[in-house]
Amino acid sequence: MKILATIFLLTGFLYAQDFSTRYDVDVSMFGKVGYADVELKEDGKKYEIKLVANTVDVAAFLLNNRVETFVSKGVIVDGKYIPETFVKTKTKTRSNKIQTYYFNHKEKEIIFVEEKTNLVSQTDFNPSTFEFTTRDVQESSKEENILDDYIADDVLSSYLNTKSSCIDGHRSYNLFAIGAHSDENRVTLSCLENTKKESASLLFSDGIANIYNLHVEPIDPDETTVDVLIAYDYDGLLKEAVLGEIFWIGKITAKRVYHKISRK
What we know:
Elements: H1 2-10, E1 18-27, E2 31-43, E3 46-55, H2 57-62, E4 67-77, E5 80-91, E6 95-104, E7 109-126, E8 131-146, H3 155-161, E9 172-174, E10 187-191, H4 194-201, E11 210-216, E12 226-232, E13 238-246, E14 250-262
Antiparallel strand pairs: 1-2, 1-14, 2-3, 3-4, 4-5, 5-6, 6-7, 7-8, 9-10, 10-11, 11-12, 12-13, 13-14
Organism: Candidatus Sulfurimonas baltica
Protein name: DUF3108 domain-containing protein
């Protein structure tokens, strides 16, 4: 379900201001499959943006109640969001994985720490009673290393730093960040114009100002290239996203159902 994760990550693409937002994600065949909550807080020269993606109903069953959390913390310098830490957590019914990236911008290096916890069923035999009993045993592991390549942004800080709309004259962006789908600059955001924009606007509700195409090329050539249309309202904030027809499951959409901005 990498496609669903891609939709969730779109919710991070917002103008920088304190806000709290929720998006519902629907699939034609199953109905609502999840939702994502996004919250940005700023305190002087520091920021924290958090995205929590939850699955529900059929999707929750198929994905073992998977919840993904992304947190970027750092400082704001001359209007630019510079991450100090980026944490990605994936929780399932019987497992938990935490990936933490520590940015050292001065030395141009990133320390990566991965912690895993799994519940594993273990069967014991009692020779005195000739009975077998099963219990859950927790297995844990931790690895730490320095990444081969230095990347200045994580996926959320990168989105925050792309403060643009179609009227800014910037028509296309390459998204290169820790936590993005690709590590080889294969994620591109392009502004739609003229007839392409008119055609795409039919897929969205009223109140849409600009529409972008998010193009994600897979690392594995056997996977499918993903193109997602994302629409912004007149405040420059993400309102809806649409991923076209997917074999047997139908169309995937994300729509904003709650939005509160606290301007400072």
